[in-house]
Write a structure and sequence with these properties.
about 90 residues; mainly beta; 5-stranded mixed sheet; 1 helix; about 40% strand; globular
């Protein structure tokens, strides 16, 4: 499947210890019927390049319609055209 913006919401912000202007990190939630393999596919979150920063957290509920599972991710790269995420709870 593909990223669906209806399932995505920014719920909070965290102060970056650097204190630099615009450096605060976002805390986001995402709910989808897609599974882990789909959301971890390169380019899945590219529609959010203007919204996501390196270090942002995304708490996800995946495979909602079949076998729901909760996963946490962090944005590891934003090139301006592509978003990269990494799973944080890999056990």
């Amino acid at each position: 499947m593909a990223f669906e913006v209806k399932g995505f919401r920014t719920v909070d912000h965290m102060t970056n210890p650097s204190g630099a202007a615009g450096a605060n990190l976002g805390v986001h939630k995402y709910v989808t019927n897609d599974d882990r393999a789909a959301v971890e596919t390169a380019g899945y979150f590219n529609a959010l390049v203007q919204r996501l920063k390196v270090g942002d957290h995304i708490d996800m509920t995946l495979a909602l319609a079949t076998a729901p599972v909760r996963r946490n991710y962090i944005v590891t790269a934003n090139s301006g055209t592509a978003i990269t995420i990494a799973a944080q709870n890999v056990a």
